Each structure stands twice: as structure tokens, then as C-alpha cells.
Amino acid sequence: FFWLLSLLVSSLLWYAVVPLRSELAFAVPFSVIFQEAFRYLFYLVIKRAETALQSVRLQELAAKGMIFDRLAVAYASGYGYGLISGAFAIVNVLSDMAGPGTIGISGHSQGFFTATAFLTLAIILLHTFWGVVMFTSLDKHGYQRIVGPIVVVIAHMLFSCLTLINRTKTPVYAISLVTGYLLLLATIFYTIVLNGVTLNSFRRSFINVRETTTPLT
């Protein structure tokens, strides 16, 4: 819902400012800023809702299963952002694929479909991790409270601008795909570090999983 609100605001700006209608590169930064602003707004809504729930007796909350899991909320928020963003990114391509060759990319490689599919997957996963990074950072104190949201905005801006490369007359899809997935790996690593996961803790968890799944002889 909040992503759709950001899309609505972006559309209103696109309609009001004439240069935005013809220059996609000019519209992309504003769209990214609005998306992240509404992501932050959603965080504030969740924060207020959690504060209200905490004023109720803990026993009542536990009985109703209403104790907030902040990481789960952050994950669900990011995943929802990613799904709706990915749906809007690929729905027109899927629609044109069913038509009589009216794809709108005159003479371009058929790799356009594959590249679009992989980029859509990347943006879904990126939004998921961006949601976790944003929520986790804002819950912390000190420099991480500022660095996290900045990292999310910069990464989102970079990925969105990368897709503009595919709009050239001779697009090289490998550039956007490789860079996009490197950005995804970097985001995953940053998310893991931000949540306090270390190599030792990961090793201990892996050992515990193996011990619990080892069959009795």
C-alpha cells in the first residue's frame, strides 16, 4: 500500500513537471526518493502501533499472539515492497510477450526478456533486504541510525539508474545484470553484519542444525 502511495505521488509529479514526461532519467531519482520516504513513513506507523500495543498488558498480548517481531515485520515490509515493485516492472513485458510481436524494442536482442526477468528478481530481493536494513538501522543508536537509510537510498538509486543502460540503442544487458547482482550480494552482506551475525555465530548455528538433524543410531 505504501509503495502504491509512493507511485501515486511520483505519477502526480511526473504529470505536473513537463520535463519528467520525456526524460526518464530525470524521473527515476524522484521515484526512488518517494519510495524510500514512504518506507520510512511505514516504519513510523509500525513504531507507533508497537508503542500502543506495549501499553496493553503483556499477558493479553502473548495470549493473542500480538508480540511484535521487529525482524519479521521488516522482512514482510521489504518483501511486500519488492513484490509490488516487481509486478509493476514485469507485467507490461509479459503482456507484450503474448502479443503479435509488439514489444516496443525495435531490433533489440531477445535477451531483453531474460534480462528483465532477472532484474525483476533482483529488485524483489533487494527491496526485501532494504526493508530489513532500514528498520534495523532506525532501531539502533549512533551512526548506524543514519548510515543505514543512506545506504538504502544510494543502493536503490544506483540499481534504478543501472536499468537505464538497457534503454540505449545497443543495450548491454550484462552490465546491469552483473552490477545489479553484485549490489544484491553486497546488500545481503551488509544486512547480515548489521544484524550482528558473525562467522563464529553462523558456524555455531550450522553445527547446532547438524546435531539436531543427525539421525539416532
Automatic annotation (TrEMBL):
Key word Transmembrane present: yes
GO BP of this protein: Notch signaling pathway; protein processing
Membrane-spanning intervals of the chain: 29-46, 67-91, 111-134, 146-165, 171-194
Membrane topology: Multi-pass membrane protein
Superkingdom to which the source organism belongs: Eukaryota
RNA-binding keyword on record: no
Annotated localization: Membrane
Keywords assigned: Membrane, Notch signaling pathway, Transmembrane, Transmembrane helix
GO cellular component terms listed in the entry, alphabetical order: membrane
Family the UniProt entry places it in: Belongs to the APH-1 family.
Official protein name in the record: Gamma-secretase subunit Aph-1
